[in-house]
Amino acid sequence: MNINPSDESNLSENFQVVRGEFFSHTLEPSFTLCNCKAYVNAACLKKLPNYDYIQLLVSPEEKILAIRPCPERKKDSFRWRQGSFGHTPKKITCPIFFAKIMTLMNWDPNLRYRFLGKFIQANDEHLFVFDLNSPEIYQPDIKTPLYPADWAKQFGIPEKEHKRVMQISIFDKYAVFEPEKKGAKNACEPSVSKKSDSGF
Fold this sequence. Notes:
The chain is an alpha+beta fold. The chain has helices at residues 8-14, 42-47, 95-105, 159-165, and strands at residues 16-18, 30-34, 37-40, 53-59, 64-70, 78-79, 92-93, 112-122, 125-131, 136-138, 145-146, 156-158, 166-171, 174-179. The strands form three sheets. Strands 2, 3, 4, 5, 6, 7, 8, 9, 10 and 11 form a ten-stranded antiparallel sheet that branches. A two-stranded antiparallel ribbon has the order 1-12. Strand 10 and strand 11 form a beta hairpin.
């Protein structure tokens, strides 16, 4: 196969961008759901050492989960670390939230789901954003990963498509991921209300 480096279309036609989930990411933000509990890794806590409390935001339509740091006084906030300003994540018991996510994604509640995320900063606001469509799947207490059936067919998505799959936009000072809908020419634009004490 001959590839001309100056011809970008060759990359689009012949290469797949290998999924990041195939590699170790111990130093990158992650979010885990297992056994009716939710928790982040130490990398998340180290990114925001001055926050003990967070809010969770979920877009059911786009299958996106976001973590937003906030003061304790904020409505619907909860502690995500053990001790003040420590680097040990707190495993948060959340049976109803856990069940709703399992139902939303049609997942097996007996398995462990971990998501790699991106840390986004915009106008003094911070978010961790996780795509629920791309989980790492494990049997509890077993390190050998499972994976969705479509992952066995390819290393990742074609390079050309990869550029369009995930975009980042800013709405009212908030950064959000926008997965492109299949068949749509442009990435969808979810409405985001202005900042308030009670969240979005």
